[in-house]
Design brief:
It comes from Plasmodium ovale wallikeri. The protein is mainly α. It has 5 helices and no strands. Helix 1 packs antiparallel against helix 2.
Length: 148
Amino acid sequence: MRNMTPGEGLDEWNDLNMLINNELARKFIKTFELLKSTLNEMKECIEKMKGVKKFIEKRQIENTTRSVTTAMLHSLNVFFNNTLPYFKRDYMLKEKLHQTLIHVDGTCENEINRLQLMWKETPFLHLIFQKFDVNKIIVDCKQFLGTS
């Protein structure tokens, strides 16, 4: 049996602990930057949705002669009027989660995982897909674009 002196192996333990903490910190920074990028994309998407909504409203006013066009524009207008607030709330919630992430210990994997799960499971997008038949709207739009 080998005689061990107190403190032997302590350097290896400290090195391993530092390596683990550095890896978690890298994972944290990578996650933080990815979420920041996603937030920017969401913001751009919401701005585009606002533009599409305004365009639809303008076309509805101009084009009241074709009933097929009017019905499709009305359907899209209702969809955007009802869902845009949910998209905005989803963005604001994710922005708060991103701000919260700044105050989390970057070496605590449980905290990082918990916030990532909260990010993915925000209720607003689920509500949009449950409350509004998004697939039907997409199919209707494809059919409309195919016939016009």
